Amino acid sequence: MRPAQEHRLNLGQDALKPSREDRALRVNKFTIGGIGLGMLGLLTAAACGSTSTPSTSSGTLASSQVLHFPVFQDPGTWDPGEMDAEVDTELMQNVFDNLWRFDDKLNIVPDIATAVPTQANGGISADGLTYTIHLNPAAKFSNQDAVTSKDVLYSWNRGADLHGAYSSILSAINGYSAVQKAAGSPPTSGTPTTFQGNIEKQLAANNPAFMMSGLTAPDAETVQVKLSTACGWCLTAWTLEGTVGAIVDEKAINAPGVDPVTWWQTPANLVGTGAYKLSAYVPKQSLQFTAVPNWWGTPKPTVKTINIDIKDPSTVPTTVDAFFQKGYDIIGYGGDSGQIPLANILAVKANSNEKADLLTQPKGRTTWVSFSIGYPTGGPFQGESAAAKGLRLAFDLAVDKNGLATTVCHDLTCTAATGGLITSGLIGNGGPNSDPLAKFDKAKAKSLLAQYDPTGSLTKNLTYSYNAGSPNDQVATYLQNEWQTNLGVHVNLNAVSDASIFISNRLSGKYQMDRDGWQFDYNHPQDWYDNLWGVYASSAGANTSGFDDPTYDTILKQADTEPLSTSLAQYNQLATILQNDVVYIPLYYSVGNFLIQPYVSGAGSNTAFDHYWNEIKILAH
Amino acid sequence: MLTRGTLIYIAQRLALIAFTLVAVSFLVFITVHSLPGSAFESERVHGKALQLLLHEYGLDRPVLVQYWSFLTNAIRGNLGVSFQIRGLPITPLVMRELSVSAELGGTALLITIGLGTTFGVLAALRQNTWVDYTLTSIAVVGYSVPSFVLAGLGVLIFSYWLPTVTNGVISYPAIWTGSYGTLVELSLPAIILGFYTSGQVTRITRAAMLEVLQQDYIRTARAKGLKSRVVTVRHALRNALIPVISILGPLVISIITGSVIIETIFGIPGLGKEFVESITAADYNITVAVFTVYALLIGIANLIVDLLYTVVDPRIRY
User: Fold this and answer.
1) Yes or no: is domain B94-284 CATH 1.10.3720.10?
2) Residue of chain B nearest A543, judged by CA positions
3) Hey, how many other C-beta atoms are within 10 angstroms of the C-beta on A20?
4) Residue A304 and residue A326: Cα distance in Å, rounded?
5) Which option is the CATH number for A20-47+78-265: 3.90.76.10, 3.40.50.970, 3.30.70.100, 3.60.15.10?
6) Which of B168, B207, B265 faces A6 most closely, judged by CB atoms?
7) Which residues of B fall within a CB distance of 8 Å from A504?
8) ipTM score of the complex?
């Protein structure tokens, strides 16, 4: 900004005024008009640049089979050994295959393997410790290399070595711990990339210390997996797409000149067995996938090209505008079904022309409040005393969960979590209103508070922590209001702007009570009970509440070894233990929202993931 | 023709720019690495997995060792790798984004100078008339209303309101295509970014023109019978542009900083958007790289402006 003094000085000076007949001025008048018209023209041209025309769907295919949609996050890594972000696994499930895959109803069906192993078909030994897997001889990588049992061994060993977020999926295989120990102590000298580089080097040298002893290849088309203990959940976990169970091509990763860390960034190196392959990648901008010619699997892909724009989450509202300008075919794919703001969803639902494009799909994520039970930060909520449990229950019963879903989510982006910790629609969910912690009983809540904190001294200066953003801010305000209104207790809110700091603090038990949640990986109760409060969670520093109960651990250990038909009752026992102990306050189950153009057939989603791209067809419109 | 004195001056300034780059990068590097938070840590990545990732990227080394590694690599043109997109080389990313920002900033600068000087000259020639009042009012709006407000309004009007009232017949494309967008997509952000800074140019030009138009040599030129247009353009405007050139440096800086907001709002994949995203994602190598590139740009822009003085005003010598 220039100083005002100078402005006044100049205005006060006498200036030479050109006459009315001055040609220069006339020229300049035209200049003004010209500039004005030019800008107007430019903006008008801009405004007319995209014309929205109503479309009609028919059963015939469009001549152009190109699908275009945005994602609101950059890829972190597409290395199946390290992938952990939903955006990455959602995309890569179309590039990489596992031995089995989930169909759209989350059933396990054969993929690279010829069958789903069972004891009946001889795929699983009588003691449940040995799995024999036969590979489909037709399976090929996108570079036309045949898939062999050696590729499976390389992929899985590499997955265990890399210590990625999902390496524990392989933890029941013989030799897993030894391999993790060997690979987890990278050389201390050398360049910073020695960790992954070292793993590739050791695997190429067939160093047994880096290879799980339980993984063998009797022949080129057979893999044998020996477990250290029977495992009722392993098959489901190994099926999880885009993670360590996915099969990669050793030759592509270890080709001369290929960096073992960044190999996946180059389309030529990102070789999988899926229906699509990466054909172009402009970091932070766009991705292009094309259908693999003569792909070995079914159904054969109809859509030939997938164009994906990488957008910042702040542009979601304008991206929704772009969808209705026919700039995008889908919004919500790539793990972004929670990105469309509630205001946009409400606007779309209110518009008769647009509401048919909205697809609402419950997603497998539950959000709850965690109490710090096993950490000193828990204050009055810490421990197993009657007072601590009573106060936890008081704070739970004081929250109207249905009210929260209505107030915060307008019953559109979430539903009240009344069926237990595991989201509705998944194995282990108890059904509507089965969770006693989902009740709203302010009279009982008040009475419990009076019983265990008659003076109010214990519940003074309580703090609820959460990572800032929508809908967490609205949920926090709602909770604060509920506790104030129904218990008369003021709870401070601690909004943490940096999610990684929040997660770090939560995992180390630094919060008294906090926002907590879990998005399921595979449809098995083990995914919840092990990863949240089991021995694995505790040893990995992921037990957010510090809850520790030997009975829980014993039942969990037993349940994990049994098939689901017998283990489900045991997992339900764990749910009861958590409920009796008031470890959490259930809040809501997430609901995803997609915008899909009417001419995009076959697009959709289930509780876990987007429908595969090879199921989609672009109809004439 | 560059004189020996000018060459020495350029060499001195380049040395100063180099020193500034080291200082800026050091300060930013130390600061961002002192901040809590991590690009890697998530609900899934913690404990041993996190520890190994930190090792992989050399983040478990002392911060001064890390800075020395950054500096020695940066001198060779290697700005390091991204944490968020694991292992992605930053230099080509930043270069591409710089070219996108240059497209937007260059267009905005043309609009700034074109609009600002035209409005300034016209306002001076028609001082205290409705033309003057209108143009100076527009200038005041230009530099008073923050660009993010104008950008928000622009998006609201052209991407939301117009398509709604015209039932989609008229609509500004809400998304940016590819790296460089289309001319249509470029128009709105460039006009908004340029409009913000053009207000300053309008005021400076108007003031300079008013001063120049009173000079004796202008009166002499008119007395010689030269056409008013020739007097205005050839004699008055050239001298009036000197103060405008003097603010080119700050203008470029203003456009660079303004582009951070405009690129974020319009989703333009330039350096400004990268700057914001890298901070929110704790992708500190990119933050340091972008800061360093900004410092380099500003240093070079100021040097060019200082050298331009000698072109427009022969009295200035280095």
Assistant:
1) yes
2) B43
3) 7
4) 19
5) 3.90.76.10
6) B207
7) 38, 41, 46
8) 0.83
